[in-house]
């Protein structure tokens, strides 16, 4: 495959274009080269704890001028899914105030009274309390068929000191308690990739998903029929790659190799 045929690059963020608070050396030139050559990019993130404004601000701190339209998050994909499958539903949201605000802005009611719930939504809740876990257990006990949706399946979120439990770990905790598993929306499901392709007006054949995690980034690219590129600049080691069933179309040291290919 020729990287020059790609019109849209969908970048994961942490481990792909930066690591924690450190932008990779190649990132600015890569992003500039993509747009100057008439191609385009979006940033895809499964992290539903923060709104797009927070990512625009983080990029600005790292020296990258980004617009809200440059990001597609698992919250966007979840809102799209809810509008398709549960229009007008009243939500119980186990998530941050920021996530609740995004659902409300999209027109969904998030009532205080948990009896008023039609659909349960679980996000990456950095404001998690035991009461919220209990609320979900109560709802699923009283209404075993209530639609239950999670924004994404990542087990852990990287931090400067190691990892913290992400949405996937809470999915497992609730599965032990209730026997239930949610419908999961973000990567590796193709919806977030499809929304990004739609916003850029390109086909899967013209799109590459670039990320450092096999079971979310690479798999979402494969599931969407796009080119799936693994970069070894983040969490995947050669041992993890060798043991994985998710085989990327291309394995690169880092995004620097994409830059080199586009400049050839
Ligand atoms: Mg990553």
Q: CATH-wise, what's the superfamily of the largest domain?
A: HAD superfamily/HAD-like
- In the CATH hierarchy, the third-tier topology of the largest domain is known as Rossmann fold
Q: Count all strands and give the number.
A: 14
Count of helical segments? Answer: 10
Bound molecules: magnesium ion
The description of the largest β-sheet is: 6 strands, parallel
Distance between the termini: 15 Å
Morphology call: globular
Structural class: alpha/beta
Order of helices and strands: EEEHEHEHEHEHEEEHEHEHEHEH
User: What is the residue-averaged pLDDT?
Assistant: 96
Overall helicity: 25-40%
Compute the gyration radius: what is it? 19 Å
Give the total of domains: 2
- As a percent range, the share of strand residues is 15-25%
Q: Based on the coordinates given, report the CATH architecture of the largest domain.
A: 3-Layer(aba) Sandwich
- Give unreliable regions as ranges: none
Q: Taking strands numbered 1, 2, ... along the chain, how are they ordered across the largest sheet?
A: 5-4-1-12-13-14
CATH top level class name of the largest domain: Alpha Beta
């Amino acid at each position: 495959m020729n990287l020059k045929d790609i019109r849209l690059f969908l970048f994961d963020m942490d481990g792909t274009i930066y690591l924690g608070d450190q932008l990779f050396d190649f990132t600015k030139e890569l992003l500039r080269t993509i747009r100057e050559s008439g191609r385009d990019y979006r940033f895809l993130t499964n992290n539903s704890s923060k709104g797009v404004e927070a990512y625009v601000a983080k990029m600005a701190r790292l020296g990258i001028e980004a617009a809200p339209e440059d990001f597609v998050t698992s919250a966007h994909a979840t809102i799209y899914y809810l509008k398709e499958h549960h229009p007008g539903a009243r939500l119980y949201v186990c998530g941050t105030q920021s996530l609740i605000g995004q659902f409300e802005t999209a027109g969904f009611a998030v009532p205080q009274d948990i009896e008023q719930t039609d659909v349960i939504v679980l996000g990456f809740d950095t404001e998690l309390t035991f009461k919220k876990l209990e609320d979900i257990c109560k709802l699923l006990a009283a209404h075993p068929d209530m639609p239950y949706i999670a924004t994404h399946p990542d087990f852990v979120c990287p931090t400067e000191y190691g990892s913290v439990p992400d949405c996937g770990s809470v999915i497992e905790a609730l599965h032990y308690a209730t026997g239930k598993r949610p419908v999961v929306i973000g990567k590796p499901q193709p919806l977030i990739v499809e929304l990004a392709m739609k916003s850029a007006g390109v086909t899967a054949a013209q799109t590459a998903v670039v990320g450092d995690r096999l079971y979310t980034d690479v798999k979402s690219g494969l599931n969407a029929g796009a080119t799936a590129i693994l970069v070894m600049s983040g969490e995947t080691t050669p041992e993890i790659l060798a043991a994985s069933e998710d085989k990327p179309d291309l394995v690169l040291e880092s995004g620097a190799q994409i830059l080199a290919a586009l400049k050839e």
